[in-house]
Amino acid sequence: MRARALRAATWFVLGTWCLQAAWIFAVPPYRGLDEHEHAYKAAAVARGDWSPRHPSSPDGWGDRMTVPADVVDSARPVCESLPYTTPDNCRGSSADDGLRTVASSAARYNPLFYAVIGSAALPFEGTTALYVMRLSTALLCSLLLGAAAYVTARRGSSMWGWVCFSGALTPIVLYSSAMAAPNGVELAAAALVWSGVVALGRHGVPRGHSDLPYVTAITAGGAVLATVRTLGPLWLVLILAAAALFLGRQRTRQVLGNRAGGAATSVLAVACLAGLAWTAAARTNDPGGPLRVTGEAWAALPGGWAMWLFQSIAAFPARDEIAPLGLYAVTLTVWAVILLLGLRAGRRRLGTAVALVVACSLLVPSAATLMTHAELGIAWQGRYGYPVAMGVIMLCAAAEPRPPGAVAPALKILGVVLPAATVGLIGVLDVVRGERVDSPLAGTSAWIVPPDASLALFVLAGAVMWGRAAIVATRPQRGSDPAPHVSPTRRVSTLPE
């Protein structure tokens, strides 16, 4: 089982690299959402700036950091083309030894992620350094997603489990995983935590399995989730609360009652405290500005709910740039099928956990919007809450509905390969065609952009490799026990009673 799971995870990582490569090349340097601000932070941290506090920008957007001049100069064309930036974000002021003091809205963020990608880019300059930061981010995310794929394969999932797993990895997850920003790592870490939770709920289907790999996945993913971004500790607590409902009291006690569970609790508690300590020291995400927005926040919430749903699927390169409607149609259709079949086949405990996740996905951003609306308006983005919201789809993997024999083989194509290929092609090609017209880097040597056919090939190859991973993971092993017979009149669930 472990060897097969490793092969499946390898295919999945290779496919993820192809999908990430399409995004890395399709988006001009620094055009990812706030990417120039994250690049400044990474370059500064790699040169020793780990301070939680910095001088505020006189222009009122971000705090000032000392960054190599070549990074600032290479980011300037894209930075100045954005509607929300100031001269202090795009030009800064000169400092000694080829450095420049420039404002970044990411200056207060936890430096751990930035230390990794910034150190990798230290030997490089300008846009080359930015591409190295993207590659480093993509590698971190692919490793986390690969670990989630390994857990998904190791638990002995059916093709249905892979449909739910790949269905939760929306275009915004793959796009974010290829940009030089911490959002992708946060989303990939959450996927690893959810995969471990679902695997614990299905424990006992493959005989002789231990909880240790699944608890380890939750611990590793949770430690990253709790430290990489400000709301990480809250997301982790909410995911674990949903996990307790999903598993039930008896199963939760069984998981926490052994040595591995106790160690995991201690590690995650320390990670949450570390994340909270940095937030308290840096006052991360404190609006700290004058009142700019008029109108009632309550009146803006219904539109925000719809916007957050669509942004959790796709919004790129910037949060207010809507993808073609076909992309949303495909993803929402896949989600609807998963929810319909999963909740129908699952037991009440699964529905309760899904309801908690949905409630948290609405209440937390609503509360944040009500508290900051006067300064920021509707500043929340769907991808912010998606670490929790993806659990709606991933939890359905535990229901294991049994489709008719003639339909089951089609899941390999319709459930895994086709959505990944379709939404990938729509998203990547739409972005690259738009940027060829609008980007200030279009036609320059700073943006390495392959032909559309090459980008399409990356996407199709990645989708096929994802399908190959699902086939490897679900192919019956020689000599393995047959699947238990399930009466077609019973509602099916592998959750413990």
Describe the structure.
The chain is mostly helical and 497 residues long. 65% of the residues lie in helices and 3% in strands. The protein is built from 20 helices and 3 strands. The protein has a 3-stranded antiparallel beta sheet with strand order 1-3-2. Helix 2 runs antiparallel to helix 3 (69-81), helix 9 (183-201) runs antiparallel to helix 10 (212-228) and helix 11 runs antiparallel to helix 16. Residues 476-497 are annotated as: Disordered. InterPro entries: DUF2142_membrane (IPR018674).
**Largest beta sheet: strand ordering:** 1-3-2
Give the N-to-C terminal Cα separation: 26 Å
Strand residues, percent:
under 5%
**Structural class from helices and strands?**
mainly alpha
Largest beta-sheet details: 3 strands, antiparallel
Measured as a percent range, the helix fraction is 55-70%
Q: Count the beta strands.
A: 3
Number of helices, where a helix is a run of at least 4 consecutive DSSP H or I residues: 20
SSE topology string = HHEHHEEHHHHHHHHHHHHHHHH
Q: Which stretches are low in confidence, meaning pLDDT under 50 for 5 or more residues running?
A: 203-208, 479-497
Return the domain count: 2
Tell me, what's the shape? globular
Overall average residue pLDDT:
86
Supply Rg.
Answer: 22 Å
